[in-house]
Amino acid sequence: MFIEIIIAMVLLVLSVIDIIYKRIPLLMIGGVIILALVSAVVANPMDWVLIAAGVAVGLVFVLVSKVTKEKIGYGDSLLFLALGILLGFWEVMMVIMIAFLGSACFAILMVCCKKKNKNTSFPFVPFIAISYALVMFVL
Where are the beta strands (DSSP E) in 52-131? Predict the structure, then answer.
């Protein structure tokens, strides 16, 4: 549980950085990946098939980032990769689903309130952080 709380705090810091700069430091993402690996091997060993499937989900998002010229940023994709290592397939899929649902609701609200248009980008890490917290500490 200790590593999960540390990752939640790092996601909170990354959320603030993403909101302010619309960029995520790769060094911090590397730290999250290392923490996830430590957790997967030492603190919270789980089925390696689930971990491999979680990594595959993250790699799919990295590929989507490349193909779409970063419509979903590399930082977001690498966070999904780290969370795939930490949580395994099913939980990372829940995080992704909640994050996309939350961001879609936010986007619809912003378009309806005429504050943004359909082509406006916004930070995605806060939605990842909120969905991670929901999956880890509520669901």
Answer: none
Confirm if 135 and 98 have CB atoms less than 8 A apart. Answer: yes
Per-residue pLDDT tens over the stretch 82-114: 999 999 999 999 999 999 999 999 999 988 988
Q: What are phi and psi of 45, to 5 degrees?
A: -65, 135
CA distance 25 to 48: 28
- Which DSSP symbol is given to 39? I
Residue environment code for 73-105, b if the CB has 16+ CB neighbours within 10 A, otherwise e: bebbbbbbbbbbbbbbbebbbbbbebbeebbee
Question: Which pTM value belongs to this model?
Answer: 0.92
Alpha-carbon gap, residue 66 to 61, rounded angstroms: 9
Q: How many domains does the chain have?
A: 1
Spatial distance between the Cα atoms of 89 and 13, rounded to a whole number of angstroms: 25
Residue 88 CB partners (closer than 8 Å, separation 6+) = 46, 47, 50, 51, 53, 54
Taken as a whole, the chain contains a residue count of 139
Parent domain of 73: 2-137
